[in-house]
Design goal:
Two copies of one chain form a homodimer. In chain A, helix 20 crosses helix 21. With 481 residues, chain A is an alpha/beta fold. The N and C termini of chain A lie far apart (63 Å). Chain A is elongated and about 90 Å long. Chain A contains 21 helices and 18 strands. At the A-B interface, helix 13, helix 15, helix 16 and helix 17 of A face helix 13, helix 15, helix 16 and helix 17 of B.
């Protein structure tokens, strides 16, 4: 298999892994900067020095360029771009989405990508707009799937071809596409045509379609989120199981005078300060950067530093098991990202399946933390406790006479036996002073315990501060001790 | 006046300003890196190149040093340290807090600080531990106040002397200290002895004592938070009105192999990635940094880059009026910071007084956003609306017959007349899909409207989704339309 993916660490549905591309290996999650041969604010060689292991360029531009076509065919893409890492090529699908047509066929672009020595080829899939109606999406998805089948049959199962997942904004079509792509044997699967969703801040829809595609894609597939280039949403996308990002944003934003940060972008002329630790920002005053003759290049470098640092932060969070905390941090940066995050939390039963069992810590970061996978899993685990007939859940001390079992209580998880005091998540969770949201969530643990132990009567002992709230939440299944 | 402060922009109680120190001017908020003459991982000259306008060093170390004492007296501190910016000197109070005694008196240290050419002198105040009982704190505060009075009387009202605010963890004593320091004419006021609170993550107590001191300090005073050096809490402190930070943390952490970030610290050997955009991190692999012979210096540089970038971010947020959003972002980084943030929100009536009237935007970032000053102010403003006898608050459309006034509804603010649709905060606020917390808060606006308009009957029209919640919140004062 020319393209193989292996996950080394995981957290939520995110992975730190390695993607093998022929004889080359790259670490994931990774950002593949987009290189336009006609316009290089930062050269591939410089990108390599910055730690970039893979980039993406557009085969269609090469195929249509008098300047580059023959050189690419003769010398190969790596020599033309002076880059010895992994080079992925897009097929012309992007141009198709912008101009409605391209003067190349599916097999022609794939053969061209092969002939210029691209490491990862992309078929001429149809990136159907999120605005398209169901009929259009189904028809275009059909064409995409035919082309993917054609790619496999013409170039063989071992060719390093990506299998894009389309399906517009219809979750069931994304799900179907994921299944068909997997059935065709693709192991490198971009989720396509999501750029318009990101451009219009429709992160809730983005979460819905990516989660749908992930439901049917093989866990062994490397998932690329096509066109995702703003660092503010990498954590969210990674949490869903996206492994690769690519974007020209660092350069396009730079050309428009836009300064990226992990919490959004600024127009450079609006800044009075340079709120970033990168070399560009620490070595220039705001005015110097605003007026620099090479401002575009400096901004592109800044945007790249920020973006690559975010990839590093995500990898570290996965290794540490603190990705939920990073997602929470990033997704509050814009109300629509928060909407996407909340949508992701609604889908936590799917995420719980892949989430890791033990983590370094659980930091409570506000009401949204109650809906984390660890809480759900803990409350499900409660069904496995062996309990006697009379069970006391004591919010305060954990002592009492006449009970078969006495459990303690830690929000947002719920009741726990003393033996679990040091284990994850009870032992490794840090919470501020109890608040309504977390105690309410903890009460769901009591309800879960009661539901799974019909032979036990649950008594709750808590201070007056919590009585009304507890009664509301567990009313039917508990008794105050 | 040798030390004068002017606020140029403000947000919450935070200020972007300029501190005039003799003939020098520095921008605030600012971090004053601590320089120990015996141990310079990064030289003052390098700090200057990084944009540092002021630093702090310890006069007591100079006064006790065979190597430096005479040179400092002869050549002056600026020449010895090779730094032409502002140099503030500590008196020996730190040593007092660590060793319990020092071999110098209040007037001796001040005279020495004057004689070595320090720009800002600190008296020998007593940094009483937060663990001290009330009697001890009162006694030691008395000594501190005597020494401050002595400083003013011996060196004159124009001497550039700081007036530290002590008082342990007793808010009324901090308040009293703030008043006395102000009455003595000090315009540069460090809040002292808070390092133990920060070291033990007691951010709630930190907020309580700083807010108490701020209540009585003059708004024209420049407030320095003594010993605060971790960038994760600068935003919180700035929001309370602290203008200056100082710390040896960048260097001390580096010596211990600790890597600072705005969301906490890592031990360098635990990192598998370098999650930062700074020049050190982008130019080294993790392993290179871990094994570098000059690792301490590289870590100190990294820590400084992160810290100075955070100061820039804070300044930008104040200019933009988005400091609440930055506080929210940083304070979720640790549950005890969240506790401090929540304490700050409880104190919002005090903050509302200084908060600015109009801001660029209001981004909803979760339940805590409901308690922001802008929401409180908006709901207070509702009292000023002129309303007829029958008032409809319509959650959806804003139309209806037979009402004198029809108001729309935007959570978390509450009801608003159509004329306010484009004004701050209604027009510039972005929220995700309505959630319980924000609608509940918006209902407080309805209650406020009802309370302030006893002659009006308020009718509410909302979808079934919200009826139960609205009834709970406004029950006694509204009627469903």
């Amino acid at each position: 298999m020319a393209l193989a993916f292996e996950s080394l660490y995981s957290d939520i549905a995110g992975r730190c892994g390695k993607l093998t591309v022929g004889k080359k290996i790259i670490k994931t999650p990774a950002l593949l900067p987009v290189i336009n041969p006609h316009l290089q604010l930062v050269s591939p060689k410089e990108l390599r020095k910055m730690g970039v292991e893979a980039l993406i360029t557009n085969a269609y531009i090469f195929s249509q360029s008098k300047q580059y076509r023959d050189r690419a065919l003769t010398d190969g893409l790596h020599k033309v771009l002076d880059f010895d890492g992994v080079i992925m090529t897009d097929s012309g699908s992007f141009q198709l989405s912008v101009y409605g047509q391209v003067s190349i066929t599916n097999t022609e672009t794939l053969a061209f990508q092969r002939d210029i020595g691209s490491d990862i080829w992309v078929p001429l899939d149809i990136p159907t707009s999120p605005a398209a109606d169901r009929e259009t999406v189904e028809r275009e998805l059909g064409i995409t799937m035919e082309r993917l089948a054609e790619a496999k049959s013409v170039f063989g199962p071992g060719a390093p071809i990506a299998g894009p997942v389309q399906g517009g904004i219809f979750p069931d079509l994304r799900e179907r596409a994921g299944k068909e792509v997997t059935d065709l044997g693709f192991t490198f699967c971009p989720v396509g045509a999501v750029v318009p969703l990101m451009e219009s801040y429709r992160y809730r829809d983005l979460v819905t379609v990516v989660m749908a595609a992930k439901r049917t894609l093989s866990p062994a597939s490397c998932v690329h989120l096509f066109g995702a280039g703003h660092p503010s949403m990498f954590a969210l996308a990674t949490a869903m199981g996206c492994d690769l990002f690519d974007s020209a944003a660092y350069a396009l934003y730079a050309k428009e005078g836009r300064y990226m940060t992990t919490h959004g972008s600024y127009k450079i002329h609006e800044l009075t300060e340079l709120p970033c630790a990168c070399g560009v920002c620490r070595n220039h005053t705001t005015e110097e950067l605003q007026k620099a003759p090479d401002r575009e290049r400096l901004l592109a470098l800044h945007n790249l530093h920020v973006t690559l640092a975010e990839i590093a932060r995500i990898r570290q969070a996965i290794v540490d098991g603190s990705l939920w905390e990073l997602v929470d941090e990033r997704c509050r940066g814009h109300p629509q990202l928060l909407a996407g995050y909340r949508q992701l939390l609604i889908d936590r039963p799917a995420l719980e399946k892949t989430d890791r069992v033990s983590k370094r810590r659980f930091f409570y970061r506000g009401g949204e933390s109650c809906a984390r996978t660890e809480v759900l899993r803990y409350q499900q685990m409660l069904a496995r406790l062996r309990l006697g007939k009379h069970v006391l859940v004591d919010f305060d001390g954990g002592s009492g006479e006449g009970f078969d079992d006495i459990l303690l209580f830690k929000p947002p998880f719920g009741p726990f036996p003393r033996e679990l005091k040091e284990t994850f998540p009870v032992g490794q969770s840090e919470i501020p002073e109890w608040d309504d949201a977390m105690v309410r969530e903890g009460c769901k643990g009591i309800v879960s315990l009661s539901d799974s132990h019909p032979g036990s009567t649950i008594f709750v002992r808590c201070s007056d501060r919590w009585k009304a709230l507890v009664m509301q939440e567990i009313g039917r299944c508990g008794v105050f001790a």
